[in-house]
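Students often ask why we bother encoding 3D structure as a string. The short answer is that it lets us treat folding as translation between two languages. Here is a chain of 84 residues written in the first language.
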Amino acid sequence: MEEIQVGRISDFFAKPVVAGVELHGTVKTGDLIRIKGATTDLEFVLASMQIEHMPVAEAKEGDLIGIKVPDRVRVGDHVYKVIE
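And here it is in the second language, the structure alphabet:
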């Protein structure tokens, strides 16, 4: 499986477990996402995302999105889209 870097974590909120992502590529709901950092390695299907508190199905380079994550992530972690 190939991984394409699509963004970086810019914020993290523990309750609810949500991360802010600065995008450098395009993502859609249903994409397989991997977040990797010094102590982070998560892989999950992107179920939903928001731009300025409004749900969206697709986001592009330059957007700042909020996504629900399964566990803690850290500012600066890299976000990848997994291509099968």
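Translate back mentally: The chain has a mean pLDDT of 96. Keep this in mind for the problem set.
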